[in-house]
Design a protein that fits this description.
mainly alpha, 154 residues, 64% helix
């Protein structure tokens, strides 16, 4: 009886077709399970899955860019991925991501400081009842001397 083995290299076309397998492969590279640990390779596979719109993969890619794990630290790239995630916020539980984008605009962290954008992202959250977003909106509006927006409760 012959025993056939399939190398990871031979299996790669299978992974390229299926987001779930892309994420599994990314995790294997991240942890070094069955392959040499390679965080850069892990980020590459998470990115492939993220490009297909997978929310978990998008979070992993954004985190990698912010932390510099597997890629050079790049806040601008991290913000780009967070904005992609936040744009899905209406249908996903991504309030934390929307808040991170708002705060990045408010502070000018990785993007140009832009209070209008910060207010836009916070308003999305406030309209869904997020009390922390409402408080941040009030603080920004007081700082800017803007009348309080509807729905902020202030």
């Amino acid at each position: 009886t012959e025993i056939y083995t399939l190398s990871l290299h031979d299996a790669l076309p299978i992974y390229q077709l299926d987001v779930v397998r892309m994420k599994l492969l990314a995790g294997e590279y991240y942890r070094g399970e069955g392959v040499d640990k390679d965080v850069g390779e892990s980020v590459m596979w998470f990115t492939k899955a993220a490009e297909q719109g997978d929310v978990e993969a998008e979070k992993a890619v954004a985190g990698a860019w912010f932390s510099g794990q597997g890629v050079p630290t790049n806040t601008v790239e991290g913000i780009c991925w967070l904005k992609k995630l936040a744009d899905q916020g209406e249908d996903q539980d991504l309030g934390d991501v929307e808040k991170a984008v708002a705060i990045a605009y408010y502070r000018g962290d990785g993007v140009d400081k832009d209070n209008k954008q910060a207010v836009y992202w916070l308003t999305r959250l406030a309209n869904r009842g997020d009390s922390q977003a409402k408080a941040l909106l009030v603080a920004i509006q007081k700082e800017e001397g803007i009348a309080t927006a509807p729905g902020t409760g202030e």
